[in-house]
Design brief:
Layout (H helix, E strand, L loop, with lengths): L1 E7 L3 H12 L4 E5 L6 H5 L1 H18 L15 H11 L6 H9 L3 E4 L3 E2 L4 E4 L2 E11 L4 E2 L13 H5 L7 E5 L3 H12 L3 E6 L10 H13 L3 E4 L3 E7 L3 E6 L4 E4 L1 E4 L3 E2 L2 H4 L20 E3 L2 E3 L10 H16 L12 E4 L4 E6 L2 H6 L4 E7 L4 H5 L5 E7 L2 E9 L2 H13 L4 H5 L10 H8 L1
Parallel strand pairs: 1-2, 1-6, 2-3, 6-17, 8-9, 8-14, 9-10
Antiparallel strand pairs: 4-5, 5-6, 7-15, 11-12, 12-13, 16-17, 18-19, 19-22, 20-21, 21-22
Helix pairs in contact: 1-10, 3-4, 3-7
């Protein structure tokens, strides 16, 4: 088969590229080994936020006492599991997405493709060749350290698909996935223990965010262990696991969620046929998503950030480059990220530590979210932190109720290189959470 373009991997980025090229008149083959749409709609962003939303409702109900009367909360996981199954994933069926792509004129092949040359892939026993573009968008998968592989464990996919909850859960990994799922299940009555081998939770974030979320999770009844060494892991029964720590203690639970990061599989993709290092963390793309002439990369497989919004951003650039349309080059200075715990942790750009390793005069502005009237009314916990170099905002964190939404203004500030002086001249609506930014600027 010979076509204009081949897109290998139809997650958020690959599906966007394949669909846009097909709509532009290209003869496109889209190849996906699993579900069209990728991790985000079936096992990631969408269903996990349904879990978070449900658990937040429970937490809000428990806050009624002293604010609006009294309440008796009875958690029930079944509506959450039903909503994930029926509304978010169609019982993990991607026919709607397949029909959407084919409706745009694309040809769909379900299978695991392997690159065999700069213009060709093999899939399901046939060779497909691209006349103009080969786009690689195969994403990343949960990485399970060797010591956990032969022990009963969950990945995020198993946790998302759970019809019933265990009585207890060990979460190995203190990043966004582990904390979001862990806090959500804890609010439904699961006894949750978090084990993080690094010095603190959400290590890429500001230390203040790590300290506060640790305090809050413990206050909610979760056990949090940081800076620990795991000596060995053993399973018991069909599901249970025990983790033995370096200090001689051990932790056990009915289920164990391993949330230790995600990795690409360049070897499985066969990029050695392109002369590339199959052990690399990601494809070596340039600012227009080009790997080499005729080959592009999009999404997690590029190693630029395992976020749906990065994949979609890269997809726009990739499509424009293939079609010869003008578009700016990729710029990741203002890459936003949000950990959807309660409170949310939103961040963009450089941390204070990053900025101090660079050049220029660093200024840090910090204020509690409760400095805003809305934050005070909500009894919100969190803060706004701005990091400036030579008077220009280069990084920021917004932690608190709707922290990810407050981040929008801060992401714009970093992206547009807005001077602190200009932010001070703005009018901030009252009473809003984001007025804490104004308070931080003048603190």
């Amino acid at each position: 088969m010979e076509v204009d373009a081949i897109v290998v991997g139809l997650g958020p980025g690959g599906e966007e590229v394949a669909g846009r090229l097909a709509e532009s008149g290209f003869e496109v083959v889209g190849i996906e080994a699993e579900l069209v749409g990728g991790e985000c709609p079936y096992w990631g962003c969408i269903p996990s936020k349904m879990m978070v939303r449900a658990s937040d409702l429970l937490a809000e109900g428990r806050r009624i006492s002293g604010n609006a009367g009294s309440s008796v909360i009875t958690p029930d996981w079944s509506p959450v599991a039903r909503r994930i199954r029926d509304e978010a994933t169609d019982s993990w069926n991607d026919q709607v997405a397949v029909d959407r792509f084919e409706g745009k004129g694309g040809t769909f092949i379900r299978g695991r493709a392997r690159v065999v040359g700069t213009t060709s892939v093999e899939v399901e026993g046939q060779t497909v060749t691209a006349r103009q573009a080969l786009v690689l968008a195969t994403g990343a998968r949960a990485w399970i350290p060797p010591m956990f592989r032969d022990v009963p464990h969950w990945t995020n996919r198993d946790a998302i698909a759970a019809e019933t909850l265990p009585g207890s859960l060990l979460v190995v990994g203190g990043g966004a996935i582990g904390l979001e799922i862990g806090q959500a299940m804890a609010r439904f009555g699961v006894e949750v223990t978090i084990i993080e081998m690094g010095d603190r939770l959400v290590g890429p974030e500001e230390p203040e965010a790590s300290a506060l979320i640790t305090e809050i999770l413990r206050r909610e009844g979760m056990a949090v262990h940081t800076g620990v060494k795991i000596e060995r892991v053993e399973g018991w029964g069909d599901t249970g696991a025990t983790v033995h720590l370096g200090d001689g203690s051990s932790l056990s639970a009915e289920r164990m969620l391993v949330a230790t990061g995600r990795r690409t599989d360049l070897g499985g993709l066969g990029v050695g046929a392109l002369g590339l290092d199959e052990s690399a963390a990601g494809l070596p793309v340039d600012a227009r998503m080009r790997v080499m002439p005729g080959v592009w990369g999009v999404g997690d497989v590029t190693g630029k950030g395992a976020f749906t919004h990065v994949a979609m951003y890269q997809a726009r650039i990739c499509v424009a480059d293939i079609l010869g349309h003008p578009i700016g080059e990729a710029d990741y200075r203002a890459l936003p990220r949000v950990t959807f715990t309660d409170p949310e942790i939103g961040s963009v750009g450089l941390t204070e530590a990053d900025a101090r390793r660079g050049e220029g005069q660093v200024t840090v502005m910090h204020e509690s979210i409760a400095s805003s009237a809305r934050g005070w009314i909500h009894k919100g916990e969190g803060f706004v932190k701005l990091v400036a170099q030579d008077g220009v905002v280069v990084g920021a964190t917004s932690m608190g109720p709707s922290g990810g939404e407050v981040l929008g203004l801060l992401a714009l500030a970093v992206h547009a290189r807005i001077p602190v002086a200009t932010l001070k001249e703005m009018i901030y609506a009252y009473p809003t959470f984001y007025r804490a930014i104004d308070s931080a600027l003048w603190a």
